[in-house]
Design goal:
single chain; alpha/beta; seven-stranded mixed beta sheet; 11 strands; globular
């Protein structure tokens, strides 16, 4: 099949967005990166789309640049990261969508768990996921008519992890 790809660019700002059309379908964005940081112009472009009713799912170990600054986002390294750096086996850690011990949870190889959120605007943010029931790794930020879904473990959304039936349930939830 010789179909042209819909998204042919490596840069977010090169994607054509028609802001003059009232019939435009709202955009939903998915970004999976090690580090996610947009400049001022790209941040405003993405946040305008979300404000008008779009949604963005962004999974990254670290959030930086103007994007993080404008949302008051901060991340911190988890202890598993330092264990891994020391050459030790970081073992397993529990990821879940609830802090309650009765919640559905998944035991994950802790080498994937490098960071969690340390700060965000709590007035418009909902905590959605946790590492070991306390470190927040998944949040939803309400922005206008849309939402930003931010996750600090991008590996959970890659083929490497999704191909393992132990984790597909987490990813699809």
């Amino acid at each position: 099949i010789n179909e042209e790809p819909v998204f042919e660019t490596d840069y977010f700002y090169e994607y054509e967005i028609d802001t003059t059309s009232s019939n435009q379908v709202l955009e939903n964005w998915i970004f999976i990166n090690n580090v996610f940081g947009l400049d001022k112009w790209e941040t405003e472009l993405l946040l305008d789309q979300v404000y008008d009713g779009g949604n963005a799912f962004i999974a990254a170990r670290q959030f930086g640049g103007y994007f993080a600054d404008s949302l008051n986002l901060g991340t911190t390294l988890l202890p598993y990261y330092f264990t891994k750096l020391a050459g030790e086996n970081p073992g397993e850690a529990i990821v879940s969508f609830d802090t309650a011990s009765t919640a559905k949870s998944w035991s994950l190889n802790a080498r994937f768990l490098e960071s969690a959120f340390s700060s965000y605007d709590s007035s418009r943010t909902t905590e959605l996921g946790y590492v070991e029931g306390e470190d927040v790794n998944f949040i939803k930020i309400t922005h206008g008519k849309g939402n930003l879904y931010l996750h600090t473990t991008p590996e959970l959304f890659t083929n490497y992890v999704v191909r393992d039936t132990l984790y597909t349930d987490y990813t699809f939830n």
